[in-house]
Amino acid sequence: MEAVPARTRVYVACVVVAAVLCLLPLPGVRAPWWAVALLAALYAGCERVARSRFVGISHPAGTFYPVLLAGAFLLPAPAAALVAVPGALLSHVAQRPVALRRLWRAAQLVIGVWAAARVHWLLGGRDAVVAGDVPYALGPAGAAVLAFCLVLAVLDGGILAVAERVPVRRAWRGLVARSLAPIAVHGLAGLMMAVLWRSPYGPVAALLVLLPMCVSWWAFAQYHRERAAHQATIRALVQAVDIKDGYTRGHSERVGQASMMIARELGMDDERIEVLRFAGILHDVGKLGVPTRLLRKNGPLTPEERRVIELHPEYGHEMVRGIGFLGEARAAVLHHHERLDGSGYPYGLVGRQIPESARVVAVADAFDAMTSTRCYSRARPVPVALAELERCAGSQFDPEMVTALVGAVERAGWRPAVTADDTEDLGGQANGSGPGGRHGQGDRTGRGGQGQGGQSDRHARGDRAGRQGQGAQDAEGGQGSQDGRSGQGDRAGRHGEGGQGGDGARVVPGPGSGPGASVSGAPGARR
């Protein structure tokens, strides 16, 4: 619990206090306590089954809301709220801190059920349930379900704003819209349970209402199993890429994370954020179609080899185009090397011709390449990487995506990771020395063959020239010599002076650099 920020603990404590206040009138409440105990046991049992290893999934939205809402339609508000407590406190929690999460879940449900029961009581729903007047009972029940949904949404938005520091204007966006429809279905089932409970057939008939809910829940579980299988397939593909091109190990996962950060900053919905995460993870899957000898080649690439490397987006698209749930992620795999100025590949698309998902992944890709520590070069500081992205916005990167990443990183931070195991002391290689310090990390540029200090991302194993103060590299077609220790040098590439970095930031002359020297730290196609 000590890892939980103090503001989060205070927020949860306030919600728990509010829940206790909802339960305080219990000693003076006249209620059928046997019914309270039966509903509480039923809810607790259902939750345990739903979150068990046997089932294999955890339904975070509450699998058996019908039981809770039936209690809200049958019982006084404090007694109805009590139904949720045992199930919430005994439910399986996968993440730590377990106790705090259970308290939060119990308090949230207590307040939600209490509010639903109060609204239902005030609108006269209890009399309609007792009389079995279903048409009349629909109105109060609908209002109670809406109250339940609103309470959960307000509390969930609050925890997002406080614990995860999601901006207030976005914390509650879409919460009610996403949860109202499924909770309304649960509310209808709960109403049927309540009406049958009060009928001559009694509680046994009411329990039969849960059977179709169990069937629908089982179908939901199958969907999640299928989705888990899809994600396992994606992980296998990424692991295959990491094994084949070990010097960028972990890069795909971090690009997926950065893509999510950009998407959230742009206010995209959760489903699209997940698709963009897949796009970032899979953006380099086409490397599986590139000969390993090219990915690990120590010397410069020939023009023919460069053309083979530039085919990896198309290879990747061919691999994933039959996976329907990826959606627009497939376009990102194909077009993440395109540039706004039209000098990218594979098709040289310009501006808004490039799919939005590809523009997101391109920025995330370049940012991680510049901020990751690898076995042959140290990471650039995050502010330097962001400055490079801003410098290249409008020519290589979409300014909107760059601005979104800058905002997300400033708010949430970024923790670059080591992507190879054998890190070494690189002396002055990583960030250079003297005027060329910003150019010290050598990265393989894209179609334009401009050079920069240090060594090529592409040729880590061969030209470890930064340590020796010199090195040669090929930037997917451009060749030249450079001094890794000073970060100076000039290279001739396909586009000559001021050419383009493959995945990364734009190549522009910088202080302490010769003509065409790169100030970007963005690697090229190897990423």
UniProtKB/TrEMBL annotation:
Annotated HD-GYP domain residues: 226-421
**Biased segments, Gly residues type:** 429-439
Q: Domain HD, which positions?
A: 248-370
* Comp. bias regions, Low complexity: 505-527
User: Where does the record place Basic and acidic residues bias?
Assistant: 456-466
Short name of one Pfam family for this protein?
Answer: HD_5
Question: What Enzyme Commission number does this protein have?
Answer: 3.1.4.-
Q: Where is this region: Disordered?
A: 416-527
The regions listed as transmembrane in this protein's record are: 12-44, 64-91, 103-123, 143-163, 175-197, 203-221
Recall the GO molecular function terms of this protein's record.
hydrolase activity
InterPro entries with a match to the protein in the record: Cyclic_di-GMP/3'3'-cGAMP_PDE, HD/PDEase_dom, HD_domain, HD_GYP_dom, HDIG_dom
Its keywords, alphabetically, are: Hydrolase, Membrane, Transmembrane, Transmembrane helix
Q: Which domain of life is it from?
A: Bacteria
Fetch the PANTHER family from UniProt. CYCLIC DI-GMP PHOSPHODIESTERASE TM_0186-RELATED (PTHR45228), LIPOPROTEIN (PTHR45228:SF4)
Record NCBIfam families: HDIG
UniProt protein name: HD-GYP domain-containing protein
Organism equals Streptomyces dubilierae
